[in-house]
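Cross-check.
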Amino acid sequence: MPCLLLTALVSLASATMTQDTSVPVTYTTRAARASEVVKALGLLAKVNLQTSAQTEGEILVISVKDQPLSQVMSRIAVVTSGEWKQEGPVYRLVPNEAVRRVEERDEFAKRVAKIRKSISDRVAEQKKNDEALAKKLAASIAESKAGSKSKTDDKAKVDTKTNEEEGDSEDASPSPYSSIEEKMVTALLLGIDATVLAQIETGDRFVFTTDPTQTQRSLGGDATEIINNFIQKHNEEVAKAPIDADTDADTNGMDEKQAEVFRQMMKQKTSKIGQVNKAMLIVKQNGSAFSFGNDVELRLYDSKGTTVFSTTSNLALGLNSNGPFGVSGEDSSDVEQVQNPVPKKQNAVVVKKTPIEYSDDSKALMASGKTMGAGSFKLSITPELRRKLFLPNVYDPLSYTQTDELFAYSKSKGKPLVADISDDWDQSVLGPSRADTTLESVEKDLQEAHTMTIVADPTFTVVKPAHPSKSRAIRIDRLALATLMHASEEKGIPSLDDLAEYAIHTTDQSAAGFASGYLALFVPGSITEALGGATNRDMLRFYGHLPAEARNTLVNGGRLAFNALTSAQRAELEHMTFGADSQLTIDDAQHKTDDLLPTWMRMIGNQMTTTDYREEPTELIPTGLPPDGFVDLKVTNESFASPQGNGDSSILALVGVLGPDELAMFKMMKDAKGEGADQMSTLLATLGKLKIGDQSVLRFTFHLPSQVVIKQSLLDHHFPNNALIVAENNLPADFQKQIADRLEALKKTPFGNMGAMFGGEPVHPQ
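Predicted model, tokenized:
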């Protein structure tokens, strides 16, 4: 025993003695997980380097030659916001909590500044618009007083001269924020602390009211006066412009049910507002990749809790005065140059454009994107590249063009490289989003620090995320993505269990990274299904957390009580109920909805017909989920089709899964008549050969008080062993009937007039 102990001590001392971090290393790696990179570096230097659970998923790019390991380690710590802790013979990369707290505070301060700027921009736009209107009114009064043609002509000359001096600004369209409704929203936002608004992150929903419940916040002391002023102005406008008696002209082509929905919407906008008992401002941020800042909704309720007025707006964070569909404020200078081009000088300076030296894989990936178009919606990828793309846990999705661009930048500086890449840097799966990417444009992007930023360093090229806290939040689980892609490749389409397992390992924030591109291209159905489409991701995670026993209970017609939910299940249900995607539905005799309609259609329908406080969760259940609530499930089976890559429509093919709902919608739009409808039909084109599969539709209903429910649907797809592949016009008879039934249901909704919306003739139910 003493000999064994002595041997162990000698071995330990020897291991410790070899931990020399001054040893020089030569090492280059494309983007890879930090756990793999530091292990490889350690093996080269014979030093035991490891990561912690909080740092192992950082994505590093390194290229160094004969550099002391300690110098490389220190830069790795910088780009990961970490530090090295020695644990016996092990050097472990752990989070630097002090640094990360500073980063979080800094990013929060920037969000606060963006919110303040967005609100001040709204105020400035409204002021500018009011001044322009006042000037036009003054000109109109002056012209009216002139009284004679000669004076009118003189006035016209003056106006012409004024327009020449001032440009066409007065002829521009009114600001989208110039209405009295928008002015009220702006005034209310000014009364809310910007630091509170900055706390609204992806998936959050804050409710501000004049009479807060436990789950609501105060609108501020001036809110009542602001709302009363709006009501007075609204009622004055309504009195000046009474509703046209020929209102039915606006409902031409709609059936009675569609027309009634439209009339109710118009009635609320064009009727006088009576006594208001409570006002509510809802600010939320959904998880969509197409989200532009925070959505804002204002509702006014009477003493009975009935909605007497509502309007929607947007707090476009970091966007310029072009509104929510403009461009980011940081890039606004480029837009101004396009809108107001500077005259070219005779001796203009030639901007240097140094091409990037891309790897063979990156070149192949970029070339494959060029093959996607009409008639070819399948990527033309070599088998070897496809193998790598389907192993994102081995060949990182950032190891292609993004890595090459960092290598090129570092080489131009003549310095060794240590970088940590954020998942949202150049999100295009098929290479750079700009075809003219050059060394200069990469350097400019890094210097402007939109997504990645350069860290000042005299001897190394050091690059890290410009928003490190956000970068950590959106980082996608590579193994979870690889597992889902493998399931998709093996089965032709992933099952509900596959999707739910992936969802459990992702967050709402992950939609901001590259993963949505991978899913769209390689996982059929991911666009229209839960991963960024109609289905609620919280619902997917709720389902994923259900054990087999609970699933069987629901499938067999049983109920699952809220008070029996696990903490994980309860958290997802609470987010569905109170989060950004909250959709409560009144399910009594007067508010019946068609359960056969797709989820997205029911959601829009609910938004169009909001009636009373019961559709607001913070009013209905202000203390949280009711203990006597429960969930039940109904399962139906139908068919779906998957395009096989030989049609004319790349857009529809990327959808991947076409059930009765989608095919009914496409048929209605393709069958619409008229010039505009014909153009839409051309865009839809044909789908070519379709593979027919079976899908189970799981319709969950979460029962809340006062006959209010949350309805969510999930789809479970699979191809039978003998799956048919047929032409678009030769679908199986039972599938054709499902589509026909859905088409008739669609025609009876407010969306049944969609053909007419595009310039075609109206569609009528049979």
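Residues 173-315 form one domain. The chain has a mean pLDDT of 81. Passed to J.P. for a second look.
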